[in-house]
Design brief:
By secondary structure, the chain is mainly alpha-helical. The chain is built from seven helices and two strands, in the order ααααββααα. It is flat and about 75 Å long.
């Protein structure tokens, strides 16, 4: 193909993608390009982990152990909330988000910045559900590569989740008994 034909093909594809994005969005701001980039990044991330696991030569388990699934679930929950909502981790989110208000004990409500390049990263940085996909993948890879260290870290995260639950239950009990 010649350069002019290549240019026409590129313009037609761009036009098709833009029309598809507008039709999908139905007048709302839906950064499909950013989401596509995030999906590509996640694919590269998990491919790198899978490659590291394969190069390590350790056999994969036939099936996950129920205890590991439970521990990974609790650790994923706690680390995802820590990364996406905790006041102390707000400097990590600040380039991609805007502070709105407090949200629960030691948590913040933030919104993704509206600039296209930062919007998708801001959504990921403030969404514990979105972040949990990355965290669970990381913890799973960690269990395959460094099982003892990863289980130790996950145990600490699970203990933190338990402590948070006890703190909230204690606060609720105090409010109830004090009549507030």
């Amino acid at each position: 193909m010649d350069t002019a034909a290549d240019s026409r093909l590129v313009r037609r594809l761009q036009g098709l993608l833009q029309r598809t994005g507008r039709q999908y969005a139905a007048g709302h701001d839906r950064p499909l390009g950013g989401y596509l980039s995030a999906m590509a990044g996640f694919t590269a991330y998990t491919t790198a982990w899978a490659t590291a696991v394969r190069l390590r030569g350790r056999p994969l388990p036939d099936q996950p152990e129920p205890w590991d699934v439970l521990l990974t679930s609790v650790a994923t929950f706690r680390l995802s909330r820590l990364l996406t909502k905790a006041s102390v981790t707000s400097p990590l989110r600040a380039p991609f988000t805007r502070y709105v208000a407090p949200q629960g004990p030691a948590e913040l409500h933030e919104e993704a910045r509206t600039e296209n390049a930062k919007h998708t990263a801001g959504e990921l940085a403030t969404c514990p559900f979105c972040m949990s996909v990355w965290v669970a993948s990381t913890l799973t890879a960690g269990q395959l590569l460094w099982p003892r260290a990863t289980r130790t870290a996950m145990g600490a995260l699970a203990a933190l989740a338990g402590a948070d639950t006890l703190q909230l239950a204690y606060s609720a009990l105090i409010e109830k008994t004090a009549g507030e």
